[in-house]
Request: fold
Amino acid sequence: MPLSHILLQFNSIQFNSLLISSTLSQFLLQSQPSLSLSVEMATNIGIMDSAYFVGRNEILSWINNRLQLNLSRIEEAASGAVQCQMMDVTHQGVVPMHKVNFDAKTEYDKIQNYKVLQEVFNKLKIQKHIEVSRLVKGRPLDNLEFLQWLKRYCDSVNGGIMNENYNPVERRYKVGKDRNLKCSMKKSKSLQTDIMNNSGSGNTLGPNRTSGDKPPFRSSGVASGANSSAEIQSLSKEIIDLKLAVETLEKERDFYFAKLRDIEIICQTPEVENISITVAIKKILYANDTKESVLDEAQDYLNQTMNAVEAQDYLGQTNDAVESEAEIEADSQN
Reply:
C-alpha cells in the first residue's frame, strides 16, 4: 500500500478517535458535576504549590498502599503503568487498562503507556502536558515531580477516598493475562503468514531449485542501503544535538528554580513577610497560571499600598502641624 494511503488512513483514524474522546469527555463532565471542579483544581497547581514539596517516601507509600505494590525507588514507576492504574483507581471505567503494559522495559513500550495516559487526560479535559521523553529515561526528579502532581490530583477527586471494591492486584492480573493471550495469538498468526508467504514465493527447496543456486544480484538494494546508512547517521547526529539542547535547558531550569526557591525562603522570613514588596512578590510566585495580568495585579497592589502609606504620612504631618499651631496659640494666650 502506498505511504500516502497509509497516512490518509492514519489521519482518518486519529480524527475519529478525537471525536470519540471529545464526546466521552463531555458525557463524563455532565454526568459527574464534581469532576469538573476537581479537574480545575488539579490543572491550577503552580510550581510553588505545596504538592511539589511532598517527599519521595510519602509518594512511594501512597503508591504501594493503593496499588498493593512494593516499590522502593521512584524510578520504578517510570514505565507509566503505575500512573495509568492510579487514574483507573480514581476514574474507574475511563482508563483502557487492556492497553497498559505493566512489563514495559523498553522506551517504546513505556511511551505506549504514556500515550494511554495522555488520552485519558484528554477525555477528562485535564490540561496537563506529560514530559514523556524525560519520564521514560527514569530520571528520579522528573518522575517525582509528575507523581507529586498526580497525588495532588487524585486527592482532589472525592477527597482521595478509594473505592473499597477495587482490587488492584486482580486488575493487573487480568490485564496481563489478556495481553499475553493477545500476544500469543498475534505470534501464531504471524507464523502462519510467514509459512504461507514462503511456500507461495518458492523460498523452499524444490525440484527446480537446488541449494547451490544463488539469488540474482540487486544493485538497487546496495544503493538503498547506502542511503539508509547516511540517513541514520544524519538522524543520530540530530538526536545528539537535541539531547545536548535538552540538557542545557534542564540546567537553566534548575538554576532559575533554585533562585526562585531562595527568593521564596527570604519572603517567608517573619521580619519581612508582611511588608508590601514581599506580598507583591509572593503574588507572582504563587500565581496559578501564566497570564500577563499577574504582574499588573502585583504592581497595582504595590502602588495602592504606597499611596496609602503616603496618605497616612501626609495625614500624620498635618495633625502634627495642627497640634504645633495649637500649642503656639496656647502659649501666646498664657
Confidence is low (pLDDT under 50) at residues 1-8, 13-35, 202-212. The chain is about 70% helix and 0% strand.
